[in-house]
Design brief:
Blueprint (H helix, E strand, L loop, with lengths): L6 E4 L3 E6 L2 E2 L19 E4 L13 E9 L2 E8 L6 E5 L4 E7 L9 H4 L9 E10 L2 E8 L3 E10 L6 E9 L2 H18 L16 E6 L9 E2 L2 E2 H19 L3 E4 L9 H10 L4 E8 L10 E6 L6 H10 L2 H4 L14 H25 L5 E9 L11 E8 L3 H7 L2 H24 L22
Parallel strand pairs: 13-16, 13-17, 17-20, 18-19
Antiparallel strand pairs: 1-2, 2-3, 4-5, 5-6, 6-12, 7-8, 8-10, 9-10, 11-12, 14-15, 18-20
Length: 452
């Protein structure tokens, strides 16, 4: 077929776009659809499903993979047909499938369980979840470059349910990269320009932004049924409630439900609100070292303080990729002496708060053997907002896992975070010189001892 595109609309099934030798979905309302070449046979790996209450009918209640040789299918059972969109992205290699907001009544580990029995195949893993208001997403991690042969939602005969089938075939790297570039061009062309948000007026009270990590399709760490995005959201809500009760702060959260928020959007929220402090809350995991435990407080730095800090920053910086967002470079070019002075002062305040938070945390729970670290966390890079990232503990550690799921522990630990924030602002208000060079010697409010 000559280089060019034709469009065909088929409601509830697919919209096709053929380009060159291969057919790949390119844009937010475009979907690949090619007829399968003969009957397709492959091994099947079923995924676990969640038992539902009486009368509940989810939009998606089962998923499985069929793989054979250079082909693979990912299949979802749905309550009704949906319009879907599929395209490919690289770095890492992924297939992205967008669909209307869908309730996935599936075990969060489904995307891993379904591939455990096979060491080879095109599909390395998959995940699913909410991307934004009215929109859900399926992300398929590829073990090798692939093209989307079809992504169609067909109605089953008997009860009105439907089956979404995403069929993939192995392709060469050159063809895959070409498809990625075409997808990016089309996505850019169809992207709706965002209106610049109106900056919020200055608040008489210090604005504290609490940032529950991950969310939506990005679940974060998952170990033995513990899901990071849920645990940190519960903790963030507890901190926000305690700060609200104090009455001297204006508190905002980057997400107030199980939805995905990009890293850059989290930073923008803090800056638009003229935040005086940004606290991002996460939890870690180390499958190879279950004995590692305790909380760690991170600040941003151009070079990681150690290898562990570099590992954590790399993991947390993959949040956008986990949600299937395309990797783009930051086009901002803010420089100059004034900017550098602002950034240095901001980082000094960040280090001061990290120091304060570590000392208050000792009352509530265990600390990592090296509780203060730094690395290039994207979510901490607001040049004018003091920011820290608190890793509550390790889901891979039994004691940490028990603490993170304990309401009693959460109440105690969140109280210490709130008190650390109060102490931080009390110190800033009482001394305009609250550390610019040595946070450990900065004057401040009384810090409680660790106790016996």
């Amino acid at each position: 077929m000559a280089e060019g595109a034709f469009f065909r609309k088929a409601v509830g099934v697919a919209t096709a776009l053929a380009l060159g030798a291969g057919t790949v979905v390119l844009a937010a309302d475009l979907l690949t659809l090619l007829p399968s070449a003969g009957r397709y046979l492959g091994s099947r790996a079923y995924a676990a499903t969640v038992q539902l209450g009486k009368g509940e009918r989810p939009a998606a209640n089962a998923a499985w993979i069929e793989q054979s040789g250079d082909r693979a299918k990912l299949i979802f059972e749905l309550a009704a047909p949906l319009d879907v969109t599929a395209f490919v992205l690289a770095n890492p290699d992924r297939v992205i499938v967008d669909l209307p907001q869908t309730d996935f009544a599936l075990d969060p580990e489904t995307g891993k369980v379904a591939v455990l029995r096979r060491k080879t195949g095109l599909i390395a893993a998959f995940r699913f979840g909410q991307l934004g208001p009215g929109k859900s997403r399926i992300v398929i991690d590829l073990a090798a470059p692939a093209q989307v042969l079809s992504a169609a939602c067909g109605k089953l005969e008997n009860d009105g349910r439907a089956r979404l089938v995403i069929e993939l075939a192995k392709t060469d790297r050159r063809s895959f990269e070409a498809a990625v570039q075409r997808a990016r061009i089309q996505l850019t062309a169809l992207a709706q320009p965002k209106e610049a948000p109106k900056p919020e007026p200055d608040s008489a009270k210090p604005v504290i932004v609490i940032d529950p990590g991950h969310g939506g399709i990005d679940r974060g760490a998952m170990v033995h049924g513990l899901i990071e995005k849920q645990l940190v959201f519960d903790f963030a809500k507890a901190v926000a409630a305690k700060l609200d009760a104090v009455g001297r702060f204006k508190v905002a959260m980057t997400r107030d439900d199980d939805s995905f928020v990009s890293l850059s959007e989290r930073v923008r929220m803090a800056r638009d609100r003229n935040a005086a402090l940004f606290v991002s809350i996460h939890a870690d995991t180390l499958s190879s070292a279950a004995d590692v435990s305790g909380a760690t407080v991170y600040t941003v730095s151009d070079r990681a303080s150690d290898a562990e800090a570099a590992r954590v920053a790399e993991k947390e910086n993959q949040s956008d990729a986990a949600a299937g967002l395309d990797k783009t470079e930051d086009a901002s070019d803010v420089s100059g002496i004034l900017f550098d002075l602002t950034r240095r002062e901001t980082r000094a305040y960040s280090q001061f708060f990290a120091h304060t938070l570590v000392n208050y945390w000792r009352v509530a729970g265990r600390l990592n053997k090296n509780p203060r670290r730094s690395a290039g966390f994207l979510v901490l890079k607001a040049p004018d907002v003091p920011s820290v990232l608190l890793e509550l503990g390790y889901l891979s550690n039994e004691k940490d896992g028990l603490a993170l799921t304990s309401a009693r522990w959460r109440d105690k630990a969140s109280s210490q975070v709130a008190e650390a924030i109060e102490a931080f602002f009390a110190a800033r208000e009482s001394s305009a010189t609250a550390t610019k060079t040595d946070p450990d010697r900065a004057p401040g409010a009384k810090i409680p001892s660790a106790g016996p």
